[in-house]
Amino acid sequence: MNKSYLISEINRLKTEKNAIILAHYYQSEDIQEIADFVGDSLELSKKAQTTDADIIVFAGVYFMAETAKILNPNKKVLLPDINAGCSLADGCHHDDFKLFKEKYPEHVVVTYINCSAEIKALSDIVCTSSNAEKIINSIPSSKNILFAPDRNLGNYLSKQTKRDLILWEGSCVVHEAFSLDKLIEIYKNNPTAKIAAHPESESHILKTAHYIGSTSGILNFIKTDTATTFIVATEAGILHQLAKTVPEKTLIPAPSVQDNTCACSECAYMKINTLEKLFQCLKNEGPEISINEKLRIQALEPITKMLELS
Ligand code: 13P
Ligand code: SF4
Known about the structure:
Blueprint: H1 3-16, E1 19-24, H2 29-34, E2 37-39, H3 41-50, E3 55-59, H4 62-71, E4 76-78, H5 87-90, H6 94-102, E5 108-112, H7 117-121, E6 125-127, H8 132-137, E7 145-148, H9 151-161, E8 165-167, H10 180-189, E9 194-197, H11 203-206, E10 211-212, H12 215-224, E11 229-233, H13 238-245, E12 250-253, H14 275-284, H15 293-309
The structure holds 1,3-dihydroxyacetonephosphate and iron/sulfur cluster.
């Protein structure tokens, strides 16, 4: 289908149906451009909590749309492609996590928002990469903490907060793929560059970073720092907003281990959504996210605690 036709139809349907399009920074440029709001996980959750639209089209991955539904039981929440998963969420199953949690009955369970509603329902509090440190620090030091599902973010938090966290062994396939050797090579050729990394990256990448933070954190850092060249260690979708916001700065995507053709990392789960699927989903009002009410209420509690602290 022709792109300009898709854009005009999406805009028409959006108005007709009082729908809002929320998009993550990792979505394709087309989707970021047509979205009403583009943000990181925390900003998107907050937006989903306050919108007065009847329909939320969540251009992101499943756990993000599911979180929007948990916060908005009476709204229709749509996801352009229902198969938009996440290696972190998909690698932490309810029964395994329940058994893991049972080994540490006294621990406070903190879960990264990149997990299913079933895992959130087993949690005391949820966090995102932009508030994780604050959430950990809000827990009295007398309490031990179990953190899931991202071991890289968990290790980073452990160092930052000087707390010994029990970690679930999950990881993000995109952020784990950055090559330290290639990063060092690029840095040698650009010695004045600053490295900005997402905390889902491995510790050897984080050790090289001048700034570590969420996608919005990285954007703000690059926007406000005086350096003119930046090496960006997160998913490549963020480069679109950066190119718009700071066109005068040089942005070098951190290279992946297996990446010989393109210098950047893309999340295949995020990129499964397309403009055409977005149009179809708005037109057909599906795929729609649905969640059992008992589970929703259980998962809502740790999300609400997070939002109150953020
Ligand atoms: P942010 O919270 O930084 O948007 O990260 C979400 C995510 O999935 C990173 O891979
Ligand atoms: Fe999940 Fe990683 Fe993709 Fe983010 S980039 S959605 S953590 S697989």
